[in-house]
Amino acid sequence: MSTGYAALLRGINVGGHRKVPMAELRAVLEGLGHGGVATYLQSGNAVFTSDATDEDALARALEQAMEQHFGFTVDCLVRGAGYLRAVVDDCPFPAAELEAKQLHVTYFSAPVTAERFAAVDRGAHAPEDFRTGDRALYLYAPQGLGRSKLADALARPAVTRGLVATTRNWNTVVKLAELTG
């Protein structure tokens, strides 16, 4: 039985660099044998179905296919429909009361614990705040991600070392859960 997945590509189509046309991304995913392929926005979100059950293996296969097709490395995360729905359902912030630009989720390649973020001074960034979840971090940034000093602190190499991390705004988080479900 096929499962719905989202592929989250990191750092493509930003500032004219590492261009990945969405039609070509769809073709790469279809070339890997996936069904129901669609893309969402231009920022590296794709949904597909597969009989495979290993998210990490799906991500590695996509990374290899992307490098073969485009000639550069793209970090990818693949997450199943159930996980994506759980990220939406487990949001520790009042998402319904916030603008989408105020709430973001960073998806990680492995579980993260509060200890990883211990050096980040939450009080210095108030009213911005964050909470960790299952391979995810929820960020409340009232002025948006582009103005968030807390987002900068959370993205430092000492915090993210050894992980693939990619961030999506709340509208995209919800839409990917819908598209895969």
What is the gist of this entry?
By secondary structure, this protein is an alpha+beta fold. Helices cover 31% and strands 25% of the residues.
Tell me the layout of helices and strands.
Elements: E1 3-9, H1 22-31, E2 35-40, E3 45-50, H2 55-70, E4 76-80, H3 81-89, E5 103-108, E6 129-133, E7 136-140, H4 149-154, H5 157-160, E8 165-169, H6 170-180
Antiparallel strand pairs: 1-3, 1-4, 2-3, 5-7, 5-8, 6-7
What does it look like?
The protein has 181 residues and is of the alpha+beta class. It folds into two domains: 81 residues, SP0830-like domains (Alpha-Beta Plaits); 80 residues, Alpha-Beta Plaits. Helices cover 31% and strands 25% of the residues. The strands form two sheets. A four-stranded antiparallel β-sheet has the order 2-3-1-4, sandwiched between helices. Strands 6-7-5-8 form a four-stranded antiparallel β-sheet. Helix 3 crosses helix 6.
